[in-house]
Amino acid sequence: MKDTIIEKMYEWSRKPYQKYFKKNEPWQIDKSKLLDYPEDTLGLDLGKFLYKNHFDIQPKLEDHDIIHVLTNTGTSVLEEIGMQYYLLGNGKRSLYLFLVTLTGIIFYPTKINYFFSQYQRGNLALPFHYLDFSKMLFIPISSIQNTFKIQNYEN
């Protein structure tokens, strides 16, 4: 029930967030073209992630799925909230992030240790949340993870 409420909150807020808060241009890429990228690149891994989870590219929100790929974070409601804690630890600040992290504490107070561990993971990595990932799709994912000290998380 909690997950359903949070999923509905996301659906209601996504469109206004895309329109009024996200200032970046949508990526000019087709989901199917990502599967043509070379092996072990960020582009190919993004394509595999999208297909595996039956997701489409969401204009102006492409970076969100990239963070999933780089951090090996799952897509359950709890993992989505955990990823926001990761980004908070990595230095990202936004109203949306603060609302999601607050919602996480309210709806999942018993998961505070999980949220704190995600925060710590993000804090250990060098800041990367601000990068223009659209220009990094041909880079091997392991190079990005090693450069920014992104620890692979086993779900």
Describe the model:
This protein is mostly helical. The protein is built from eight helices and no strands. It is globular. The protein starts with a helix and ends in an 8-residue tail after the last helix.
Write a concise keyword list for the protein shown above.
8 helices; mainly alpha; 155 residues
Task: Write a brief caption for the model.
The chain has 155 residues and is mostly helical. The chain has helices at residues 2-21, 31-34, 42-52, 62-71, 77-89, 95-107, 112-124, 141-147. It is built from 8 helices and no strands.
* Major pleated sheet: none
Which structural class best describes the helix and strand composition?
Answer: mainly alpha
* Low-confidence parts: none
- How much helix is in the residues? 55-70%
Beta-strand percentage?
under 5%
Strand count: 0
SSE blueprint:
Elements: H1 2-21, H2 31-34, H3 42-52, H4 62-71, H5 77-89, H6 95-107, H7 112-124, H8 141-147
